[in-house]
Recover the amino acids of this structure.
């Protein structure tokens, strides 16, 4: 007789943590935008340890439930490996984008003649410098993405978009620091990470009017491109809000034009 395993709901903060660490993306196929669920690696639904949880899409989750067959069943040690690998990649990408878009990097990036210590500056002066310099970094990031993944394959096209999406997400996060604390109720990182994944889901859904799975591999490419576009526009909107609200002077009048012209 097998012992009955009791399902204990995953505490909200633990669920939020594993979703954030995984970029709300299945750790097996790593395709963003697919409907996901949190899987208990040891198959004990009462064990809600962070170590025991993995984000899986419904397709990959089905692969954990295959019985018999020819070894297609995903077992717990395989899932653990996939999870570790994916969390590492997500973290690496976030770190890289975080550095590139950070206020400190951006404000100090250009050989400004009147170089002033970042820490000694007025917050709004920093914002002006950030907005003026981020357009240049933006162009550079697009060049890096194009060079790193220059092939004409769907994978390369997706990678180019992912690179820019990570970058935009970090720019949004940095701009959010000019709002009062707790303005976004959750941390800006979490807020914009959730926003990105809900945008993925939306574009994925609207790309498949014949039903889930009918759009083929191109849906991943077009969804990523659409999310990229959304986030780019969002940076522009937030930029303008801050310029108007704080009545910032010294922002290049062509700021948003230059921001938008980078494809
Ligand atoms: Zn999957």
């Amino acid at each position: 007789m097998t012992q009955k395993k009791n399902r204990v709901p995953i505490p909200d903060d633990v669920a939020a943590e594993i979703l954030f660490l995984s970029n709300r993306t299945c750790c097996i196929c790593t395709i963003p935008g697919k409907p996901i669920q949190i899987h208990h690696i040891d198959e004990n639904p009462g064990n809600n340890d962070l170590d025991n949880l993995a984000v899986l899409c419904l397709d990959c989750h089905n692969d954990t439930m295959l019985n018999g067959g020819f070894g297609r069943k995903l077992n717990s040690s395989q899932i653990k490996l996939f999870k570790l690998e994916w969390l590492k990649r997500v973290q690496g990408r976030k770190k890289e984008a975080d550095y590139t878009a950070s206020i400190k990097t951006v404000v100090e990036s250009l050989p400004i003649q009147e170089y002033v210590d970042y820490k000694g500056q007025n917050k709004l002066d920093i914002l002006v410098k950030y907005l003026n310099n981020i357009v240049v970094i933006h162009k550079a990031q697009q060049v890096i993405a194009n060079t790193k993944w220059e092939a004409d394959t769907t994978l390369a096209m997706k990678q180019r978009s992912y690179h820019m999406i990570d970058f935009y997400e970090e720019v949004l996060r940095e701009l959010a620091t000019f709002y009062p604390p707790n303005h976004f109720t959750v941390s800006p990182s979490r807020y914009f990470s959730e926003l990105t994944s809900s945008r993925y889901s939306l574009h994925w859904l609207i790309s498949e009017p014949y039903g889930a799975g009918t759009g083929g591999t191109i849906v991943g490419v077009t969804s990523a491109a659409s999310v990229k576009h959304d986030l780019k526009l969002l940076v522009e909107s937030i930029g303008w809000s801050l310029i108007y609200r704080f009545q910032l002077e010294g922002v290049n009048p062509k700021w948003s034009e230059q921001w938008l012209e980078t494809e």
User: Anything to note?
Assistant: The chain is about 55% helix and 5% strand.
